[in-house]
């Protein structure tokens, strides 16, 4: 009887020690997990990039560099400004010594008012840009034009851009069209992710030939993307954009790209008379 009682007591003691050991083990694991979770708030492992996003996302078959200009014009001077700008653009187009061309020129219709937007292409990249600027700075007629134009402006700014490899080449087109420039200011470090999503998403926006060109900034405001679209009218724009939501996969692109954006802006623009994009 005594031996049986002793055996029961020993088994109970062993179970108690096992339970205590298990409890301590759980506490250690829990504390370790808590530390891992806490540390993860401050330590984020990122795979090293092997190249600049400009090399990974831009067209390899061309060495084109783009410049976009935003000119805020005095309201009473807009008509005179457009005439003067068209004259200078035509001269540069006709002179083969200048390795630049106007892709498109517009006046903002909805968005910032009394604004002119110009998109230039430099065939040959940064060397072509440098060559062009050096020649223009020695061109007395051009310097006189700049002085006259300055009298008409409130402010101006520009950016140097590269074009996304998966977007259409911006080529001259017949009108009449209205153009929308959608500008996205991205969170730093998200350009590759943006490009990966849009490389798949652009196929959803090709049915009506509305995609004109897609660009990302190199100099000026950084992590900025410009998407340029053409529509027959504002009604056509609404119908075209709504139809994209009916295609399986477009909603996924929107879902994953919206968190990458810090801010965004839309301009509706009317091409000037001499713009290659009408």
From TrEMBL:
DNA damage as a keyword of this entry, yes or no, is: no
> Does the UniProt entry include the keyword Mitochondrion?
yes
According to its record, what are the GO cellular component terms?
A: mitochondrial matrix
| Localization | Mitochondrion matrix
Pfam families attached to this UniProt entry: NIPSNAP
**GO BP annotations listed:** mitophagy
NIPSNAP domain ranges (all copies): 179-276
InterPro entries attached to this UniProt entry: Dimeric_a/b-barrel (IPR011008), NIPSNAP (IPR012577), NipSnap_domain (IPR051557)
Keyword terms, alphabetized: Autophagy, Mitochondrion, Transit peptide
Q: Which family does it belong to?
A: Belongs to the NipSnap family.
Q: Outline what the protein does.
A: Protein involved in mitophagy. Accumulates on the mitochondria surface in response to mitochondrial depolarization and acts as a 'eat me' signal by recruiting proteins involved in selective autophagy.
Q: What is this protein called?
A: NipSnap-like 1
User: In the UniProt record, what gene is named as encoding this protein?
Assistant: nipsnap1
